[in-house]
Amino acid sequence: MKFKLSFLSFVFILLNIQAQNIRLYVGTYTNGDSKGIYQLEFNTETGNLENKQLAINIDSPSFLTYSPDKKYLYSVNQSDDGFVSSYKINTDGTLSLLTRVSSHGKGPCHISINESGDKVVVSNYTGGTVSIYPINKDGSLKEASQIFNHNSENEKSHAHSAKFSKDNLFVADLGRNAVYQYKLKDGNYKLASPSIVEMEGNPGPRHFLLDKGNEFLYVINEYGGSVTSIKKTKKGFKQIDFDSTLDENYKGKNSCADIHLSKDERFLYGSNRGENSIAVFKRNTRNGTLDRIQNMSVHGDWPRNFSLDPTGKFLLVANKKSNNISVFKIDPESGKLSFLHSTDLPAPVCLLF
Predict the structure, then answer these.
(1) Of the chain's two ends, which shows fewer C-beta atoms within 10 Å, N or C?
(2) DSSP class of residue 135?
(3) What's an example of a GO molecular-function annotation for this chain (predicted)?
(4) C-alpha 238: how far from its chain's center?
């Protein structure tokens, strides 16, 4: 009887450990030691990263996204001859390539999927174009159904990110210093506004997010080291706040990169490349304004992308130049970060839970 009890206890502990481990995919640049997309196991209780494996050998998968059911994964392949790839996720976490199509622009840098999982949108940084792709039922990609060219005779576009929001498509264009809005009409997206608010100076909008209620939109500005806070109104959009991402004592060069909200939306986080920090903001959930409360070192160099784990207890940072992923614990009351540990991985630039 004692053996049975101990054996059952062992099984319970083993199952509990397995339940705590979730998969993390890492997109990389492959012009060095990296070979493609990697997978690791992340423990949602301890914050440990283990069992690093190559999921697929593929060229510069610099940004990743899942299908809603997590049966398929999509990436841009960032090169002059840009591509978009779709993959089937195998039971062991490895990836099988389904389709590889042109991104219709040089330097694709971002990809996202709509809520229904039947379209992805790709931003081409160097080409200045945005491409929409329908998705087949088997997860494979069709050829692009729409391509938007933001370049003009006088201004060079650098489309840096795009996201669907119900019947809207928003695009952050760093080159044109604007956030575009497209609206779905008769099955296609039509330009509704070339700039939802005036971006004063040249802050360089890079990434953005919307809150769960689709009432507030937050843009992190690469050149300006700042976050622009925007509220949706009956007449359109208006800027409600503008905050620096940098510590007052930092005087060096800086390029902001990524932005995320905490699970409860009480805190906002942004990455600084140069200061090499995560800026932590307390968010007023009623009026949407921000107040910066911490600048935490990323314990690495050049944090291009970061992610919060599904539990909302940890924040992980991909440090491209120092070839490591840093793990931080999030204080649930204050939202502030504390460093736990770091894991080596070559040229990480995108983290996907």
Answers:
(1) N
(2) B
(3) hydrolase activity
(4) 24
**What tokens does 336 get?**
């502030």
216-241 burial string, b = 16+ CB within 10 Å, else e? bbbbbbbbbbbbbbbbbeeeebebbb
**Residue with the two structure tokens 């840098």:** 109
Rounded to whole angstroms, the Cα distance separating 147 from 169 reads 13
Q: What is the DSSP string of 66-110?
A: E-TTSSEEEEEE-SSS-EEEEEEEPTTS-EEEEEEEE-SSSSEEE
Both tokens assigned to 150: 């933001």
Task: Give the pLDDT mean for 87-116.
Answer: 98
- Summarize pLDDT for 190-224 with one digit per residue, the tens: 999 999 999 999 999 999 999 999 999 999 999 99
CA 268 to chain centre: 14
pLDDT digits (tens, 9 = 90+) for 145-187: 999 999 999 999 999 999 999 999 999 999 999 999 999 999 9
Cα separation of 22 and 41, whole Å?
6
Token pair 């409600």: residue: 240
314 vs 312: CA distance, rounded Å: 6
% of the chain beyond a pLDDT of 90: 94
Question: Which two structure tokens, joined as six digits, stand for 294?
Answer: 């911490």
**pTM listed for this prediction:** 0.94
67, amino acid identity: S
One-letter amino acid identity for 272? N
Q: Which residues pair with 84 in a beta bridge?
A: 76, 101
Of the pLDDT bands very low, low, confident and very high (cuts 50, 70, 90), residue 9 is: low
Indicate the helix (H) or strand (E) that contains 16.
helix 2-20
Which residues does 186 contact at the CB level (< 8 Å), separation at least 6? none
- Give the DSSP H or E segment for 20: helix 2-20
